[in-house]
Structure formats: C-alpha cells, structure tokens
Amino acid sequence: MKKLKRSARLVELTQFLLARPHTLIPLTTFAERYGAAKSSISEDLAIIKEVFEEEGMGELQTLAGAAGGVKYIPRVSEERALDIIHKVCGKLEEPGRILPGGYLYMSDLLGQPHLVNEIGDIFATIFGGKNIDVVMTVETKGIPIAYATGAKLNLPVVLVRRDHQVTEGSAVSINYVSGSHKSIHTMTLSRRAMKEKSRVLIVDDFMKAGGTVRGMIDLLAEFNAEVAGVGVLLDSGSVDSEERLFEDYVSLVTLETVDAKNRTVGVKPGNYFEK
C-alpha cells in the first residue's frame, strides 16, 4: 500500500479498527500496511484511543510484547444506549402495532440495518466482558439482532431451527413447552454447528414466558455447553400474568400496557436500565 499522509492514515486506520472489533492486531500489521514506523503508528493509535473514549465509541486495548498489538472494543455509554432505546420505544408505541390475536408487529424495526446495528452495539457492550464463543438465536425475527451482536463481538452465529434440515447433517432435537400457548414444539441444532462445551450468548427479539429461551438452554445441555448470558430486545413485563420459565436475562425494552381494543401498547426501557 502506498504511503498516506497522516490525516488520511488516521481515517483509514480508524476504519480498519472499526471493521475488526475484538480482534488483536499486531502493530507490525499497520507498519507494513502504511509503510510507517511503529512509533508513528503508536502515536496514531493514541489519538484514535482518545477520540473513541471521549465520544463514547469504545476503547482501544493494547497488549505489550512480541505477541502484543491493539484491539478495538465497541462500547456504548448508558446515556447513548438509553437514547437509542427511547427511540425504539417511540416507534413501538406508534398506533396500530397490535395485530389480530394480540401479536406485536416488529418486523419493520428489525428490517432497519442502522437500528439493528445500534441494538447490536448495546448487547456487545453488555456482554463484551464475558468469555463467549458463539451467539445463538432461534430461526425467527431475532436473527438480525443476533448477527448484529455477533458482528460487534466478532463471534459466529448459531441458528436453532424449528425443523431439521437434511443439509445440516446429524442434529440434536428436543421438545419444549411454549410458555405463551402451553403447547409442545420442537427445536433442533446441527451437531456441526457448535463445538461441545462452548460458552453461548442467547439473543432473541421477544420473550413472553420464556419457553423458547428455556428450550434453547435445554438444547445446549445436550452439547455440554454453558449459557454465558441471555439478551432480549423486548420482554412482556407485567403484561403477561403467566409464570416466567426463565428469569436471568437482560432486556432493552419492557412491555407495560396493551390495549387490544384500540390496538395500542405502552413500553418503557428494559431491566438493563433499572440500576
């Protein structure tokens, strides 16, 4: 790569780091990439580190020694996270989101890449300090959130399927009880999808009684895997009178009220902000 002016190098270096979160990058990589001395690269990184921290964009961690380097850790301040979630709450409270049968329409929100990426930033901030191997979700509307979170944590995403696919090879299947309908469902996970004894972050879009999350936890037991955390975009809060099957989770939004007649809902920031 040709030599860049320092201003251009700072821009390109910043973009390089943002595209590779939670990845340890040796200083020699940058020195060779930009044809610059390590001392110059270190000065550049010090500038970027200061800006990241001042603007609440995350932090740069450095590791000294021959095997050392720099690693970008995405972080979202609680103030910024709350601002994002207030915007989500405003959109969820728009008229007409309650569908026949009492379902809450969220697909339009989960189809907005910028918003989903911001949600991924928040989950990456919450769970970034944990030792996690994979992000898991069930094949439903939570997939965009899982991939956004996985991208920010630099982790693979594992999809639990409702039905076994022959292209997935041998799989483990279990039955679980849906807390919302008290009915029996099946979920399956390919043996090749995840190594045994992995530490797993479960991410989902909505949790009512927690039957689906409980099912994924039971499925993980078949892989001798450990649950490192559970994050949901929206939980049913006190609106659902049913006993919750799982309690140890982090939610970003909580459902407060449902007016089926007028098809309106009331929401508030989730338990993550109740500190």
Automatic annotation (TrEMBL):
Key words, A-Z: DNA-binding, Transcription, Transcription regulation
One of the GO BP terms on file: negative regulation of purine nucleobase metabolic process
A matching Pfam family: PuR_N
One MF annotation (Gene Ontology) recorded for this entry: DNA binding
InterPro entries for this protein: PRTase-like, PRTase_dom, Pur/Pyrimidine_PRTase, PuR_N, PurR_Bsub, WH-like_DNA-bd_sf, WH_DNA-bd_sf
Top-level taxonomic group: Bacteria
Start and end residues of each Phosphoribosyltransferase domain: 109-241
Stated family: Belongs to the purine/pyrimidine phosphoribosyltransferase family. PurR subfamily.
Record's protein name: Pur operon repressor
